[in-house]
Design brief:
344 residues, mainly alpha, 3 domains, two-stranded antiparallel ribbon, 13 helices, 6 strands
Length: 344
């Protein structure tokens, strides 16, 4: 950090990224240190080397401009890295979290997921990929504030992820334009990969960049073109999650009880959502490759044929016990010990 502040333009980005990548693969203490370093870069003011006094020479002004650009690039890099790697560092992935049935705008549009942040009008439609989606408009800022406090309380199970999101929120209002755009992209990535309540927190942050009191406002932050595709992708994810959960309510949460055509429908929905999402945020990591949540992941990763085969073998084994003795046996138990009676 001291070197970055002394001469930010001289920091090699590739070397820094390699160091951070190795860190997130290490132990918890090493991961925490890497995330803390990135957060520190994002929070610090420009170093003295990035400015020159009014009486400075032309060469000194140009050198300071170079250092200022180097510092801005470091902040943008840290912002991007946090969005790309914080889920892995924090161990928070949507496909591995407890299932949730809450989505933005539920409960009459008042609470949403995990205390919710989005509400008001919804519009339904079908995107170009044929995926049904619902657009959830953000709540007014004064209404969001109270629910956001509830959200922060519920999100405290992962202080690292919550801290990063709060830092990205600050970057949206205080960072340079390049940092603001990188913050929007990072928030979108985290939203896609994270379970609730982090996802709805991200949705609210993205919505706040382009809406005020439910009415489109001026793009004062200059990030609406970056935020809007993220919001559209999240609408598709939420609609897909709702559909998958309705199917789970009908067929259960064990894939063996699902008809083959229903599993095929779920798999097709998953693939369409992944294509839509990856078109916006890029390739999903293996661990975060199930944006429809843990129910979808469990159903789609179960080897149904193998499970059916195992259950058939158990049934055959049980029937064989009953039929021992060359006739129709009697299957009973005494003090928990199973015994088979002779044939008739």
């Amino acid at each position: 950090m001291a070197l970055a502040r002394a001469a930010p333009a001289r920091i090699g980005h590739d070397a820094l990224l390699d160091m951070w990548r190795l860190a997130v693969q290490g132990k918890a203490a090493v991961r925490n240190t890497a995330v803390a370093a990135a957060l520190s870069l994002l929070a610090c003011d420009p170093p003295p080397a990035a400015s020159a006094p009014g009486t400075a020479s032309y060469a000194a002004v140009m050198a300071a401009a170079g250092e200022d650009a180097g510092w801005a690039n470091l902040q943008r890099l840290a912002t991007w890295w946090l969005g790309e790697y914080v889920n892995g560092a924090a161990g928070e992935w949507t496909g591995h979290a407890p299932a949730t049935t809450s989505t933005p705008g539920e409960d009459g549009g008042e609470t949403g997921a995990a205390g919710g942040v989005a509400h008001a009008a919804t519009t339904n439609g079908v995107d170009d990929d044929g995926v049904q989606h619902t657009t959830h408009h953000a709540a007014a800022p004064e209404a969001v504030k109270t629910r956001a406090e509830l959200l922060v309380k519920e999100a405290s199970r992962s202080p690292m992820l919550l801290t990063v999101l709060q830092a990205l929120q600050r970057a949206l209002s205080t960072g340079s334009w390049h940092v603001r755009v990188a913050a929007v992209e990072s928030i979108g990535k985290i939203a896609i990969r994270s379970p609730e309540p982090f996802r709805i927190y991200c949705y609210a942050l993205l919505s706040s960049t382009s809406r005020a009191h439910g009415i489109m406002s001026r793009d004062v932050l200059g990030v609406v073109p970056a935020a809007q595709p993220m919001l559209e992708a999240l609408d598709v994810v939420y609609a897909g999650t709702e559909h998958a959960e309705r199917m789970a309510q009908q067929y259960g949460v064990e894939a063996i009880h699902w008809p083959d055509e229903a599993l095929d429908e779920l798999r097709a929905l998953h693939e369409k959502v992944v294509v839509k999402v990856e078109g916006v945020v890029g390739k999903l990591p293996v661990a975060g490759g199930y944006p429809l949540g843990p129910i979808s992941r469990a159903l789609l990763t179960t080897d149904v044929e193998e499970e059916r085969k195992q259950r058939e073998e158990v049934c055959v084994w049980g029937v064989g016990l009953v039929c021992l003795g060359g006739g129709v046996g009697v299957l009973g138990s005494v003090s928990g010990v199973v015994w088979v009676g002779g044939g008739v």
